[in-house]
Design a protein that fits this description.
With 253 residues, the chain is α/β, with parallel strands linked by helices. It contains 9 helices and 8 strands. It has an 8-stranded parallel beta sheet with strand order 1-8-7-6-5-4-3-2. It is globular, with a radius of gyration of 17 Å.
């Protein structure tokens, strides 16, 4: 069963984290996620999650490049701290971006550095039930200069790492921009997908406002037996965020 997971760093701005969780719990959500943990009160998150019988799906590790070998130790230190926070908060997936492409160094060399960095990350994750999910992002609109855009390259990287603790975050919005062929790619790479994100295109807006056929895509994911999170990572035009999230929660029911 799909676990819809609103990103709390987007919805209900200028509202306390505690009130955000209480609000989505009243809407019927059981799961949520956010981007950054290092600017939040971890004890408060733990308390409000338990008090509202919620489940934290995922958040990001620190934003340090994996394609720059001089940054590897910094990346691993950040991941180690993130792992400790995950153990406390109970999420099973950690999101990782990989960094921007470096000028003057071949893509092959950067890809090899990325793989070696993820192998080192896998050693930190070994013996846990945590999964580090690397995220391809679109280069056309939102993340110009980012190293990793295509799901097939992400799949190759994860396979080269060869760890059950390192997989892919498949962002449907980003991959529609980058490559299309969404359903076939989800089916092809399904075993290596730990988490999904969704928003509609163009505009990264509400589900059902653009070109992506989410009812069919979500039904495909459900039929494949996915029981992880589908993050709601959209930027709503409608200022009534409760209405947006209510419509999204029941989109595929």
């Amino acid at each position: 069963m799909i676990k819809y997971s609103p990103c709390m760093d987007i919805f209900f701005p200028n509202v306390s984290f505690k009130n955000k969780i209480e609000t989505i719990a009243k809407l019927g959500y059981k799961n949520y996620e956010f981007w950054t943990w290092w600017d939040k009160d971890i004890n408060e998150i733990q308390d409000v999650t338990e008090a509202n019988n919620m489940n934290l799906m995922t958040f990001c590790t620190k934003f340090v490049s994996l394609v720059d070998v001089t940054k590897r130790n910094e990346y691993l230190e950040g991941l180690n701290a993130t792992i400790e926070v995950s153990k406390k908060l109970g999420n099973k997936v950690i999101i990782s971006q990989v960094g921007d492409e470096l000028v003057g160094l071949s893509r092959g060399a950067q890809k090899e550095c990325l793989i070696e960095g993820l192998k080192a990350a896998a050693e930190l994750l070994k013996g846990t039930d945590l999964v580090l999910a690397i995220e391809p992002l679109n280069l056309l609109y939102d993340h110009k200069g980012y190293f990793l855009a295509r799901s097939d390259e992400a799949f190759d990287i994860v396979n080269a790492v060869g760890s059950k603790n390192v997989k892919i975050l498949f962002d449907i919005y980003h991959q529609q921009i980058t490559e299309g062929n969404i359903i076939n790619n989800i089916k092809t790479y399904f075993d290596q997908i730990a988490h999904f994100h969704m928003a509609d295109l163009p505009g990264r807006g509400e589900i059902g406002t653009g070109e992506i056929n989410y009812p069919v895509i979500l039904k495909t994911i459900e039929n494949l037996g996915f029981n992880g999170g589908v993050g709601i990572e959209l930027f709503p035009k409608n200022e009534n965020h409760s209405e947006v999230l209510s419509n999204t929660l029941f989109l595929n029911s």
